[in-house]
Each structure stands twice: as structure tokens, then as C-alpha cells.
Amino acid sequence: MSDRIVLDAHDLVVRYPGSPPVVAVDGVSLRISAGETVALVGESGSGKSSVARAVAGIDRPAEGEVRFDGGAVTALGIRRRARELTAIQMVFQDPSTSLNPRRRVGDQVSDGITAARARGLEGSRPEEWFERVGLDTAAVSRFPHQFSGGQKQRIAIARALAARPHLLVADEPISALDASTQTSVAALMRDLVSELGAGMLFISHDLAVVQRIADRTLVMYGGRVMESGDTAAIWAAPRHPYTRALLGAIPKPDGAGRVPVSPTAAERATWTDVPPVED
Amino acid sequence: MSDILTIDDLTVDIGRPLVKGVSLELHPGRIQGLAGESGSGKTLTSLAVLGLLPRNARTGGSIRLGDTEILGLRRRELNRIRGRRIAMVFQDPSSSLHPQLTVGHQLTDHIRTHLGLGRAAARDRAAELLERVNVPSASDALGRYPHQFSGGQRQRIAIAIALACDPDVLLADEPTTALDVTVQAGILQLVRDLATERNLAVLLVTHDLGVMSAVADDVAVMRDGRVVEAADRETLFASPQHEYTRGLLAALPGSRFEGGGA
Asked: Across the interface, do A150 and B38 touch by the CB < 8 Å criterion?
């Protein structure tokens, strides 16, 4: 991991229209260095995906700023994306909707390679990326439906990495996969990203996977980051009551037959009153 | 202990052998866990019980519900058992519930088919069930659609549907994997309580040994189509015998075997 900061987002606020408007993200700041994997965890509705979309420039934040490689990230419009911003790549939850069903998978990975070349980087071949994500290189000429869910997600990862990103934003990239392949795909992403020297924002509700692969973790609740810090330190000694409740709800493989306690509505009501803790 | 569902030397072959002689017994009021990685055959084993294997699957061995052989039954006979005596809950409640039918419709449909209740009686029963699985304002919930509920509530609804006809056996395949951990805890407690209070025999398929440790009474570990180890929960977690089980446990933070083992 280097100290070069690839992503610096500060005081992000994301609102969705409605009456009253929904404040999905309420003042979130985060930094990611090259080679670093930062996890965003929290329950559904906590604002994780909204942060990811603002960071990648899919949605424009109502307030705050996203800086990537020192420049501002502009939101996607109808025009072609600024060339330097193709160094931000995303992997989405469901590979069966993120891959084009009518194009050969090798061609789709080539799109990533083209994006890298447009930024003046060396070319590569789809087969190399297939090999890196653990797929048979002969499969480049097949179509998405000829692969399993886990394999499709590996193709989506290959396509994103072929663009040689400086930042990979992955929003629940493993939750649509068969439960027992989730860990291996997450570990693969982490390894490849750090090999390329890129940063990764990894969003997941699977805390066991996050504990394994993330250098730092941000815990979100109600649109705010309640606790952030070194992953191992948070797991060893969570300080915010929400983090304690979240980690306390993970069942332990100790054979004791104890179901963890689910937090009550009364407990939930107190969490937002406790100020966030940072390392 | 009497057993209600007996799987004996089950084999499933889909082009190649995938389940290679699995034997398991389910007992009323007990949760039998089935662990293992992707491709170990644990889901195929539970699908075989429901007769939901692909058409080209060839099966061998025996699956008995009480004294009745159910492996290889014809669809018409299976339909009298599926949803009535053996029910199932899947990983993703948003794809197992019908998006365009109200919760009440989905809950009363098979109550009326299987139990022959009238519309009003079925509706009363449906409301009771929703209340039992802790879906808030149960009678209003009957008129709403799946998308109007959170993921955890949808899984509670799926469980209510599974329980609607008082089944003897509940098959649950990764029922909490798609949920937040805080929600998972509530669902696990519900499954545990229901097994005990309804004398339900549960087959819980999960890759998560934490979940297994929380609720299963007995645990079987599958690998490559075979059960490599089976024991009661305390024994399995305290002294795993098979190298593969020790490896699975060693990979987990918070287990006694962390960092050690295979």
C-alpha cells in the first residue's frame, strides 16, 4: 500500500426527491490510498450504495465533493465520460444484468482494454484477464448465458480490471453469488486490485468477508459513518454502540447453540445520539 | 428418537455423479444442519427430497417420509406432499415470493388447496401465521405486496407460507444468507422456536458454520457428494474428526481452531 491518495471524498450529502426529500447520505467523508481496500458496511438502507454511486460519479451528490487522482469527479451525463475517469471502474451486484447478453464475453473485456489504451496505457488481451480471474481462456468466445453466476461475476471483474483502474468501486459484488463461492470471489478481487496497485471501495453486508479482505472499515448507519478505522482494530474492540450491536449479531462458530441477540427498537433509537468515533 | 424423514444412501447423477450415497435422518423438533462448500451436493440433497431435481437427473437410494417412499414419486402424488407435509424456504425471498400477488393471496392459496378451508377461514389462519412470525400489523400486511416489505420481513413471510399447512418437515436452504446480520439473528431465533413449538423437523443447509453453531442440533458436513462427518453440534464443534471439517473451522475467525488445523 502506498500513501498516494486515489480517492478523497468529503462531506457528501445525497438526497432523493420526495416530500420530504430522503437524505440517504448525510455528511460522509472517506479517503482511499492506492493498493488499499476500504469496506463500507451497515444494514440495508444505511446509504452504502448511495455513497458508492456518488463516488463513481453515477449520481451527483447534493453537497460535498469527490476528488479522484487530484481532479474533481463529474457526474455521468449523456456525453462520453472524460478519459481520465475511466480509471474508476465498478462491479455491480448482479452480473447477469451488468453484462450484455448479446455480446461475446471476450469482446466485453476488450472494452476495458480499449479504455486503458485510450489513457495511453499498454494494450493487453482478454485471455490474459480471463486467466487472472481463474477462467478458461478458451471461453472468451462464449456468451454470458453460457456461464454460471460466479463465472459471470469473474467476467465482470475481468472487464473492470482490464481498464487498469486506479479505483474499483464494488457494490455488493458477491451477494448474488452462491453462498459458498462468495469468499473466494472477494479474496480474488482483493488480490488482483492490490496487484494492480489500485484502491478498492468494497461494499458488503457480509461482515465475515469484510473482516478478511478489508484494510480499513467504515460502519454506516442512517446515512452517517458511525465508526471508522483499521479493520482488525474495529473487530477487536468496537467502540460505537451500533458497531457493537452489528458485530455482536454475528453468530460464533463455538458449538454453544446460542442465537445472537437481535437489537431492539429502543436500542436502535439510541444509536444516532452517540457521536461517531474515528481512529 | 423416531425419525420423520429418512434419507438412505441417496445418489444423484446429472451427467456425472454429484451425490454419492448420502444418509441422513430428520427428527421432529430437531434441526439437522447440512454444511459444505459450493458443489458439495448439499442443495441437490434437499432438492431431491422435494422432487425438484432437473428432469435429466437420475437418482438412487431411498427417501422416506414416515413409512412412505417419496423418491421417484409422480408429480401428482408429490403435489400432495410438497407444501403440505414438506415445505421449503429458499435463500432469496424476493425471488421466491410472487411480486404481483398480495401476501394474503400467496398465503391463503395453498391453505385452501391443501386444507380445503374457505376464504374467510384461510384468511384468519394467514393473519395468525403472520403474527406468529412477527410481521408487524399482520392483518394489514395481508393486503400488501412483497416489495412493500424489507428483506427480513419478506423472509418471515416466506416462512409463514412454508408453515401454513402445518408441515412435518421444513427444508431451509441458506435462509439467512441474503439478510443483514442483525436481521439474521431474529430469523434464526424464529426458526429455532418454531422447530421446538411445532415439533418440526428442520433440514438447514448453510455454508455458515456460525449459523450452524447457533441453531443446529445435529450437523452433517458434506464434501464432494458425500457426508464426511456427522455428529451432534457440541461434539462436532468441540472435536471435529475429519480433516476437512477441521479445515473449515480453522478458516473461521472466532472458532477454537482459528489459525490451526488443516
From this structure: yes
Q: Is A208 on the interface with B (CB under 8 A)?
A: yes
State the smallest CA–CA distance between residue A43 and chain B in angstroms.
Answer: 6
Domain, as residue range, for A27: 5-272
In this predicted structure, the answer to whether residue B260 has a pLDDT above a threshold of 60 is no
Alpha carbon distance A145, A147 (integer Å): 5
pTM of the prediction? Answer: 0.84
Residue B66 in domain = yes
Question: 3-class DSSP state for residue B51?
Answer: coil
Q: Band the pLDDT of B261: cuts 50, 70, 90.
A: very low
CATH code of the domain in which B59 resides: 3.40.50.300
The ipTM is: 0.82
Rounded Cα–Cα distance for residues A166 and A168 (Å): 7
CA dist., res. B225 & res. A15, Å (int): 50
Is the minimum CB–CB distance between A71 and chain B shorter than 8 Å?
Answer: no
C-alpha cell at B260: 490451526
**Over the stretch B23-41, which tens digit does the pLDDT of each residue have?**
999 999 999 999 987 778 9
Q: Encode pLDDT of A1-40 as tens digits.
A: 567 999 999 999 999 998 889 999 999 999 999 999 999 9
Q: What's the CATH number where A112 sits?
A: 3.40.50.300
Tell me if A251 and B206 make a contact (CB, 8 A cut-off). no
**Between B180, B210, B215, which is nearest A252 by CB?**
B210
Looking at the complex, does the CB of residue B180 fall below 8 Å from at least one CB of chain A? Answer: yes
What is the number of domains present in chain A?
Answer: 1
Exposed / middle / buried, residue B79 (Cβ in 10 Å: 0-12, 13-18, 19+): middle
